[in-house]
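Subject: two folds for Thursday's group meeting

Dear M.,

Sorry for the delay on this. The cluster queue was jammed most of the week, so I only got both jobs back this morning. I'm pasting them in the order they finished. Each block is the input sequence followed by the predicted structure tokens. Could you check whether the formatting survives your parser before we put anything on slides? The first protein is the one we discussed after the seminar.
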Amino acid sequence: MSEVYIGIDVGSKTCAAAVRSKGGDIQMEREFPTTESDLVEFVSGLDGEVSVLFEEGELAGWMYRLLLPHAESVEACDPKRNAWVYKEKPKGDPVDAKKLSELLRMGSYKVVYHTDDENMATFKIVVQHHQQMVKNTTRIKNQIKSRLRQQGVIITGTGVYTKDGRHEAIARVNNAPVQHVLLQVFRLLDDAERQRDKAKRLMVRESGAFSAIGRLKKIPGVATIGAARFFAYVQDPSRFNVSELCKYSRLAVVGRESGGNPLGPEHLNKDGNGTLKDVSRKAFDGAMRTKGPNGIKEFYRRSLQRTGDRTNARLNTQRKILAVMLAIMRDGVEYSDDRVNGKGA
């Protein structure tokens, strides 16, 4: 059976597709509306072992799950790693589609993971929605303090967001129109907080469908939000080992070299997923605050004793937290302190 390589440049209204043979020849080019029926009809209508490649974007997850039953393989690729498509001229939908088909044929691309599980994909959207609601609330709070500073009213802490605190702050502003502006922004804050709380309740409710989240919550310092965020972003634990997960979570130490000589100090890799780094930091802080001993506290103490550096010890502990979370999610096991300290710090 012949092998067929399809590159699709996806737009919100139309798609451009190019079909390439195993030998590299363009067999077909087509443009069609970005609809479920048109995409399925085009891909399923081709003979041979069909492979599909498109760039990561808002439609990528939907397209992946839509086309997977109709092709031998379907993948999304990282556009930042595709300089040939992303930067080189001339650019255009048909040109990009042909380049994507060639990258697919040559295997010269970086895959962006998508799950084929609709429930998992939906849960990630729920988690991301909660995160966005939290960001919206924080943005409005920052806006309130900024507006007050513009009037020479400097306020620290969170008391300004309470009912009494906001009235006291507004009373210190002598400009009547600005007082009205502040009242409107405070009303926005009230609404944002209500929506944030609704988003949290939705996430907590939906997390009950996944037993792994319940096991993750038993780790010291890991509450429902942290467990849900980890589960939603990892999705398939078999796609990571510990070092890969730490790298993906922006906790890998990297440095540049030339001729075996370092070029500047080592630093944490900034590529990857900041959410998982934040999950590990919040879990660390939570574990440190818990009453009584736990495995994470002990791991940190031993790491601090060995390194003599609080930052390094904390980062080591964050990596260990991620490793434990990965094992619990992957192996279906329960948390115990031995899983943290059983193999040394």
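Second protein, same layout:
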Amino acid sequence: MKDLREVSPRGKKILILSPHPDDDCLGMGATISFLRKDNYLKIFYLTSGWRGVRGRISREEKSNLREREAISAVKLLGIDEKAVRFLSLPFYEKGEVCSRDILILTEEIKRFRPQIIFTSAEEEDPHLTHKKCWQIVRESLKDLDFSFSIYIYQVWEIFRKFDYFFSFGKRLMERKLKAIKEHRSQLKPKYTKRGITSLGEWEVSLNRNYAKMLGKGFLYAEVFKTCPDNPEEDGYFRDEEGEVYKVMD
């Protein structure tokens, strides 16, 4: 395992792909706050996440609510509103992934041309959105005509093995929690897994446990894989069809 602080990129274009408008804060909120200081970050939210909002308001109102929450959250992490894009991929409404989803994401990534991409992978989230987003991301990566590195961050799945970690202390955890709490519609999540009743409490416990796994006296840690299925194979990601992508310099 390597400390992300020790290989911290500088002056890089970094793209964070977030299936829902809160997954970025949950999976890597502390890391985002750290990386934004010396790099050019953008965040793409792949879906509006309106289905996760309780109450009898319209779909449009729910989508707008989640957008406002996401912007407020990332501002607390030091990210400007102009760095945020809401892609609203069609599959979220239609239920099935189509070529339009892949085209939209591919074109947006090509427009930014990131050198580093952070994304969640095929996780067992309660409503399968993460699985479908990973399918779209994987297909989109095949059409990119430039080199890039990939990190996989965790949201729902608990990583038993990982390649990189970002350790942090109480102050940064407090900032992460403030960002999570800006997602007010999700403080009591509509969809839960493993008895999760508070996303903030879940993240504190999870990040504390990751720090204990490292055994170096850290208070908290966020963790990353270089590929979803075989973290020991550091350096490359091989997809189901055998194509290989560079994942770390």
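Two things I noticed about the second structure. The first strand starts at residue 2 and ends at 3. Strands lie at 2-3, 13-18, 40-45, 84-86, 116-119, 149-153, 164-168, 220-225, 236-238, 244-246.

Cheers,
T.
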